[in-house]
Design a protein that fits this description.
The structure holds two protein chains of two kinds.
Chain A lengths: L1 H28 L6 H9 L13 H10 L2 H6 L6 H12 L9 E5 L20 H7 L15 H5 L5 E3 L6 E3 L9 H5 L5 E5 L6 E4 L7 H7 L9 H5 L4 E3 L2 E3 L6 H11 L5 E4 L5
Antiparallel strand pairs in A: 1-4, 2-3, 5-8, 6-7
Helix pairs in contact in A: 2-3, 2-5
Chain B lengths: L24 E3 L5 E5 L9 E2 L6 E2 L4 E4 L8 E2 L4 E10 L5 E9 L22 H10 L12 H4 L10 E6 L8 H8 L1 H15 L3 E7 L3 H11 L5 E6 L8 H9 L14 E5 H13 L5 E7 L7 E6 L4 H7 L7 E6 L6 E2 L13 E6 L16 H5 L6 H9 L4 H6 L10 H5 L6 H14 L1
Parallel strand pairs in B: 1-14, 9-10, 9-12, 10-11, 13-17
Antiparallel strand pairs in B: 2-8, 3-5, 4-7, 5-6, 7-8, 13-14, 15-16, 15-17
Helix pairs in contact in B: 1-4, 3-5, 4-7, 10-13
Chain lengths: ~280, ~450
Amino acid sequence: MDNLILLNTLILGSIGLISALVLYLVSKKFMVETDETTVKIVEILPQANCGGCGKAGCADFATACAKADADVFANLYCPVGGQKVMQKIAEIKGFEVAQKAQTTAVLLCQGTCQNAPAKVVYEAVSSCRVANRISSGQSGCPDGCLRLGDCIKSCKFGALSLNEETGLPIIDSTKCVSCGACAKVCPRGLFEIRPVSQNGSIVYVACRNKQKGATARKNCKSACIACMKCSKINDSIKVENNISYIPADIDVEKFGSELAQNCPTGAIVYRENVRD
Amino acid sequence: MTRKYTFSMGGIHPDKFKITSNCPIEDAGLPEMVYIPVKQHIGSSAKIMVNKGDKVKVGTLIADADGIVSSDVHSSVSGEVIKIEDVAGSTGYEEKMITIKVEGDEWEESIDRSDKIIKEINFTPEEIVKKIREAGIVGMGGAGYPTPIKTSLPEGKKADILIVNGIECEPFLTADDRLMVERAEQIIIGARIINKALGIQNAIIAIDENKPNAIATLTALCKLYIGVNVRVCKTKYPQGGEKQLIKAITGKELPSGKLPFDMGCVVQNVATVHAVYEAVMKNKPLFERIVTVSGDGIEYPSNYRVRVGTPISYLIDRAGGMNENVSKIILGGPMMGNAIVNHSAPTTKLTSGVLLFKEDKISKKEASACIRCGKCTQVCPAGLRPFAIKQAVVYSGPTDELRKLHAGDCIECGCCAYSCPANIPLLDYCKIAKQEIRKK
């Protein structure tokens, strides 16, 4: 009996020893050389793996950073980590960091349950992608928010939440890292990543309805009716396809409130202290 | 006991509800206004040929085919073109439509309006295809594929059998059934015309066994025509699908990505074949079709001959109006059709039915978790795994995953969603999967 126990221990022990030896030799022989800088950069990165930088994930971004020269590096930016993380990576690489303006995602629709009441009942799968394919949606606006919240599910940073009263998603700009996941998932392209001005204000046209003014108004009270009033205030604002678009580089501090006040339907949204 | 033909893989047996199969086709009459979409087919939109204020007659060309995969559109009424702009269609999305105000009922002189049946086919294949093209005929079974492409042989291909699809496997719909009873001879001659264009000797009219009247009428008449035969098929949904029908009739399976031409088959819907007869023999373009108005939400379910562009609301009024508590209107059949958002939308060349349902008839069960019973896989006539496709769509992985599952082969028949015990709307997911594959 004693012999049996001893024998088993010996056999198992020797199998373990041999395997360990083999593993050790193999790992020495086939060792993958990892770049030290890459490892360092990976440690700094937020590890959200969101793809907001345009790379496949944080590790991929780190490799790209490690390989980059000064010119390429200027175009790399981690939206999640922001300026702080980029500063740290730049220190490792010995480069200067270009100052990037703060950005946030905005919803280009104000078709709330009040502004654009539901005319039909939608009963199929609760997903914007499905609803967009089946019909123009409950309110009838073919370009408006479907109010089913695919974007909320897509946000990895908890920046989006559903406003039960209006039916629209609310964007918490303090949490938004501008990764662009919501913009990708929205079947109607209702999200835009816009820069926030120095004093933290932002102005944009919250409507994408391309129908003629009268039809658009029938669907939604706060639709852009292409009245051209905003383009008279600032020349750079273009009205095309019955829809106005305020360019991202507009002087928000100077024109923002004026634009919002003069919009007859309230389609232009002006918000202050976005980042607070 | 004669052999009953059917396809082998998958399929279901939904309740038939063919309540209108004994209602003769009635003329729906003329509405005050018609809205004719310029895109009623697969392919590119037709080019608009009329201007605002123009007077048109019944059968006047109002939009010309733009390219090969496109189709002409003709006016279905006589009157004045009021506007040419985007109007909300049945889905609520805007489509380009030509709005015509109806004034009288004046037809183009070239159209032969007599009831006389012309049997002699004195045209060359080229002339036949040209006439079909000029009549703007598209596949009226629902896909809307331009018929001239399907009636001219591609180079190096040979067809040896024409299958006329009179299956109409969707519950409620009886438009094709009635057409086969009332226009049997025209359909047979139409099949012979297509045969001549393609150089085929044989034509088979496939009919489901639940249409005894159509079977009796056509079998009797087919004895007078050489090369046209009736085959009775076992009732099973979705036998009307092109691939399923080829399998049922010839026993050959159409491989993924292949066209019926590759197998020497051509499949045409009975309504299309009838339209071909009228176009070639009577010079009548495709501007009217048979539409079944049915369901428990309508006062008098019936079959109507409807001019293209007639608003759905007009048809509902014509059939006695809506009953109380109607909560869903479906365009097409209950299995494959879509619920509509806007009932002032027009009917098109592809509208085979308008179904109205009361609230209690509609399944509103909440979807629960998949229990992995495999029912959807069992009934899928394309041999797919709908539950796996759903999973791939929900986790929105790479499209390669969807391609591996062959989601592109889905025929959108809805068998999976119909048989799912967990009430998962699998069809919706499959449709997204197809869309996603097409995007890439």
